[in-house]
Amino acid sequence: MVYSCELCGKAFRLQRMLNRHLKCHNQVKRHLCTFCGKGFNDTFDLKRHVRTHTGIRPYKCEICNKAFTQRCSLESHLKKIHGVQQQYAYKQRRDKLYVCEDCGYTGPTQEDLYLHVNSAHPGSAFLKKTSKKLAAILQTKLTSVLQRNAKLNEEDK
């Protein structure tokens, strides 16, 4: 099935992609870049744009170490420069990368990212946005790990 934009005719395979696209026709840009003032209709687009200012490039080529702000740019690079075609089955999820927008740290889980931000950037807006439930769960785990480490340190003495 194909979903088409009634305003410009652009077609999408997924309804959610059409819904996201429809925001581009809205003249009110609710999300503004704090670096340059450019406006975006979508927080994802703003986050991607901000990386052009911060220099954060979390997607790295394992062949030549060139880094990119977006996964699709890395995949395009792999295909064009190294002849490596990424093959994903229909609807197969690629491993998600959790990126610290303050320093570029990447982790495999949201928990890893939270723990990193909590220790490296305690005043980060990310911590304020993170749900209280997740924060409570992760804080409990962090406390447990710290207690376990303290216990191991005591045993070593």
UniProtKB/TrEMBL annotation:
It is found in: Nucleus. The keyword Hydrolase does not apply. Its main location: nucleus. InterPro entries: Ovo-like, Znf_C2H2_sf, Znf_C2H2_type. One of its GO terms (biological process) is negative regulation of cell differentiation. PROSITE patterns: ZINC_FINGER_C2H2_1, ZINC_FINGER_C2H2_2. Residues 3-30, 31-58, 59-87, 98-126 form the C2H2-type domain. Keywords: Metal-binding, Nucleus, Repeat, Zinc, Zinc-finger. GO terms for molecular function: DNA-binding transcription factor activity, RNA polymerase II-specific; RNA polymerase II cis-regulatory region sequence-specific DNA binding; zinc ion binding. SMART domains: ZnF_C2H2 (SM00355). GO terms for cellular component: nucleus. Belongs to the krueppel C2H2-type zinc-finger protein family. This is Transcription factor Ovo-like 2 isoform X4.
